[in-house]
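Lecture notes, structural biology module. Today: joint structure prediction for complexes of four components.
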Amino acid sequence: MKIGKDVEPVLWFVLYTLLRLAGGTGAVKVSTTQLGEVMGVSQQSTSRHLQHLERLGLIKREFVSDGTYIHISRKGMDNLKTVYEQLRKSLVGPASTTLILEGVVFTGFGEGAYYVNQEGYRSQLREFLGFEPFPGTLNVRLRTKVDMDRREELERTPGLEFKGFKTEDRSFGGGRGYPVVVNDEVEAVLVIADRTRYDRSTVEIVAPVNLRKRLSLKDGDVIRISYSSSLERDD
Amino acid sequence: MKIGKDVEPVLWFVLYTLLRLAGGTGAVKVSTTQLGEVMGVSQQSTSRHLQHLERLGLIKREFVSDGTYIHISRKGMDNLKTVYEQLRKSLVGPASTTLILEGVVFTGFGEGAYYVNQEGYRSQLREFLGFEPFPGTLNVRLRTKVDMDRREELERTPGLEFKGFKTEDRSFGGGRGYPVVVNDEVEAVLVIADRTRYDRSTVEIVAPVNLRKRLSLKDGDVIRISYSSSLERDD
DNA sequence: ATTACTATAGCTCGAGTAG
DNA sequence: TCTACTCGAGCTATAGTAA
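The predicted structure, tokenised, for the full assembly:
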């Protein structure tokens, strides 16, 4: 019996309570006694629950002299967002939220190609796209605050999770992908690496084809990236 | 340990799963075996959970020869909506959804006054308004599809619950109230009785004052009813 | 096919307590 | 204060089975 993925109902409730206490930031300072009181559970059980949540990677704790800071991790947030999305779908209907981002194409340092060519990412992209990804990414710079806000809105949805992996040489971090349509023509995935997620002004796009050729794009061209929540995978 | 109100985490999960299977309508035909499979739980436990949910009044069951229809009750829906609202608040920010309804004032059959004067409702209205309710209601007819759709949107939020009650003579049903502001001036409660909720074109307003006098209203006047989700009680 | 009872294995809870 | 251990009471799950 698992809510979302991995999470037992009781633990999910603890996570949900933490979210309510933490608000948007996902961090609170709260003791096991306090938290237990809010939930109507003993300090002891609360302590155990928090250990479990931490072991599952849903929260991180930071112990200070007079208490503990609890951060809900990415994975924890994803879980909550997934449940939120499910509830939204059923309660307010298939709100076909369409988000549109506009940005300018630019040439990066070829890092995108390097990452896409890692088999660890390739295989996941293959699954999301349904095709072999073109071995390069399209770099897009967002120019306006509106676009950056929309990007944040996009990030509030769970999207598709890329898992990190290790090769002999080095380790690669995780990230998320969002199924999008570029210039109302080409299906692609907007990729946001966990590492780079605080650079709010750029995004990268991966597609089954060479987007520059397919859409005759050159540096400085403006493209339109559409995301529909209904394109999300079902679970 | 209760999610929303009354509901243990495990039972909440069952309710949540039912919602996902049922979609917006809140009704599914599903066997304990099937439901158990979806949740990763035995048929026996599922059966017990459904009995508990029914005893709590969160679902209703209808047994037919080849299975069972499960309806999520109003109370069950309210619980799910409450959790949804909580998640929304934390995940997408205090979306100060402001709904505006417009409608035409008309004179009813005095039923409103009859109900408001029942102490069983008066005491609850007193609590919601913070004042003694004026002994009469303002009847409003919604004219456009947009207004009726907004009314439905309003009904998707949990609002305030009016409990039904019994007197020596008869019994009175429950309903919901939504805190609103009339003509941007007067705080009031929009009341929707469970019994009348399928008459989509009319609503009734209760306020601490005589709205007709206070706003110099006569039959046929158009009023503006604003609802802000942030006015909702916190729990 | 259904739903749901009984019996028991196993898990979770909180009191007591330690660090 | 804080977190978290141990351990027994009680609750919950499933197998077996009935209707």
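Point to remember: Chain A touches chain B through 30 residues (CB under 8 Å).
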